[in-house]
Every structure is written in structure tokens, then in C-alpha cells.
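Question thread 4412

I'm putting together a teaching handout and wanted feedback from people who do this every day. The idea is simple: show students a protein as raw sequence, then show them the C-alpha cells that encode its fold, then repeat with a second protein so they can compare. Below is the first pair exactly as I plan to print it.
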Amino acid sequence: MQKITTYLTFNDQAEEAMKFYTSIFKNSSIVNTMRIGDNVLSGTFQIDGQEFVVLNGGPHFTFAEGMSLFVSCEDQEEIDELYEKLSAGGEKQPCGWLKDKFGVSWQIVPPVLGELLSDPDPVKSQRVMDAMLKMYKIDIQALKQAYEQS
């Protein structure tokens, strides 16, 4: 059993959110849905084996950018696909961040970004940082080009 589970509280879109997220991520499924009459109260879904719980809690619950879901993407194709699908109806933001149509913040980032930013050469890492700060969706090739400049 997963020790810590992300719990997302929506106004009345919990079921819609589960369907949206599981339609985007390949290895995902809706585990259960709890209903009261015809209305969804809560549900559980999984993405790559990680469980998330959703609840319809009313309009006084909102999402804040201080909490985000971080998705590690191995290649540009995955970044392109997830950034576009998750931001549909939402808001594209700088540095690989986005808000989905429900207001949930996501970071769509390749591991190579952390590797390049942590290079011991401060000039190289600064060039990567400068390049990233100009991006919305992360561009791996542009990051590598900034890193390799002479």
C-alpha cells in the first residue's frame, strides 16, 4: 500500500478529472468511484502505479501553485504530448509549468534539465538556466545547445 497519497479536492469535477487524467497517461486507470445517488462523492485513480484520490468538496476548495505534480519525461516526444494535453483548456506557464483546466499545477520536465543545471561549471549551468527561463514547454535540444556553447 502507498504510504502517502495525493488528494485532490474539486468543486464538482472529480469524475471528469479522473477521466481526463487517465485518458492522458498511458499506464493509468480509474480504481473506484464512490457515489451518493447519482452524484460522485470521491474516487481513486492510478498513474504508473501511483494512487490519487479525488473528492467533490464544493467551491471553497481551490488549488494553489505552491503544490504541483511533477512529471519526469524521458524524451521530447513525451514532453510535447503531456504539455499539450494537460494544458488544453488550462494555462501554459514558463519553465515547463502549466495549470490544467481544473487549476491543478503540473511540471513537465526531463531529468536532463537537473543534470545540466547541476553542472559544476557555473557558466554552463547559468546558460542552461537562462535558456530555460525563456521557455514555456521545455525544449531538450535547446537546453543542450545552451549547455554546449563555447
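The second pair follows. I'd like the answer to focus on this one:
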Amino acid sequence: MREPPAPLDVRPLAPLIGAEVRDVDVARLDDEAFASVRSVLRDRLVVVFRDQRLTPGEQLAFAERFGEAEPPHPVFARVPEEPRVSVLESRGGEPLYTDEWHADTTFRAHPARGSLLYARVVPPVGGDTLWANMEAAYDALSTPVRSTIDGLTATHDIFGGGPYGRVSTYRDIVLGRAGGAARVEEIAAEYPPVSHPVVRVDPDTGRRALFVNRSFTTGIDGLAKLESAWLLGMLLEHAEQPAFQVRHRWNVDDLVVWENRATLHFAVADYAPAHRLMHRVTVIDDRPV
């Protein structure tokens, strides 16, 4: 008789979000162990794996066990041999643009279901990433507020421009490159603004989560400008409370996987002029409902 698989060594990282799974090689997980990882991810929303040794191809292959990888990102650099692996890199005196609460690619009609971020180079101090649990944030709202926002939609735009986010962060990046103005027009045509529910429902669990963020959500549909700005600002401020958060201090070869459906994240921009290099893969989701 075959011995039952050893249980995963799972260590919660914060009361409401985050776990570290120890002593596994994600590139060699069997189906039973992978199913356990998926269960931990669904429960804890953010999972840390330390001491991985992944090629871009292995990172992509692991990501595709969760679902189809998204096409190449329209703004980020790419790994040449694996263009669906994005390169997130800052060095020297370059301005940093990651210190804003957001969910990945909500400007797409089908935003990322999840993301996998792998640390290749990390600064000696700083460069942490924080995540916030948007299911817990929704649950903590009062009943009247939940009743108000259930059924509302909000507009998401790749170039931002909302009242509570940076204006045109991606636009500025693209404009700084050769042929930038033409490329901005191409990106805008390829990714027109889309509307998503303010509260999305996970099709697997039925749980509800806030689905707005500072980087891409420009306003709540059907409301006057003042009403939209007030309600969106309140929801963002509420969602970003420390009680919903976990913070990760990166080491080289850390891999972090998270549920993009139900989290926001924030990369702390406190490490310039040090070098930070990460590889990211995002996984396609169904259209939010």
C-alpha cells in the first residue's frame, strides 16, 4: 500500500492573510501536493515559497498549473525566451512607481486571477511587498454600506487618472521611451476602459470581495463625480487598513503566489538607488461577476 503524502508545512503569516509553505520545490510538486497548495492559497490568499531555483520556463510552467498565463504585458519588459514572464526592475536613480495599492491588470476585460512573483535580485534593505485581504475588507463594512455597493460597477483604465491614484503612471513610462506617443495610442486602442463590479463574487467559493484599486479604478459608474469620488475614496481607505494586511521581506529565490481576485498589493519604494529585479507571471481569470 502506498504511503499517504506528508502534509504540507504551512505557517500563517498574519491573522487574516498570508502563509508560508516550507520545504517544497514548486517545480516538482505532484498532483496531490499541488491540490493542497491550491487549497492553502484559496484559504490564505497569499502563499510564500522560499529557496526556489526557477528558470523563467519553470516559473511559467508552475503558473500554468493554476490557469492560462496572460499575454505579454503591454508596458513591462519581458524575458526574451518567455515573453509571458514580465520583468519588474528598478536600479540606480530611476523613479519608482510601485508604491500604490492595486490589483494586477484590472484594466483588462479578464483581469488576472492570480500572480506569481519571483525574486531574482533584492536590495540589502527595503523593497518589501504588502498584501491586503479584500474579502475581509468587504466583510468588515457595515450592512448599509454593503447594501449600497452590491450591484454597482466601476470603470478601470490602464492609464489611470482617477481621483485617488497617480495620474497616468503607465502613460509616463511609455512616453519616456522612443516612439512613446504612438505606443500610448496603440495601448489605449488595445485596452479601452472597462467596467467591473465594485464587489466581485468568487465563482468557486461564493465569497464577496471589494474590487477597486488606486492604480486603475477611475470612478464608480452611474454616480455624480462628487459621489463617486467620496464613495471610492472611502472604500480604498477602508480596504488599506493594517488589520487586513500581511508584509513580506524578500530574499533572493522567494516565490510568492497570490489570489488577485481578492487582494490588493503595495510594493514599498524605499530602496533607491539599490537594484531590485523580479519576474512576474499573471494567470487569466473569467470576467468578474
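Top answer:
Good format. For the second protein you could add a caption like this: The mean pLDDT is 92. Residues 9-284 form a domain with the Double-stranded beta-helix fold (CATH 3.60.130.10).
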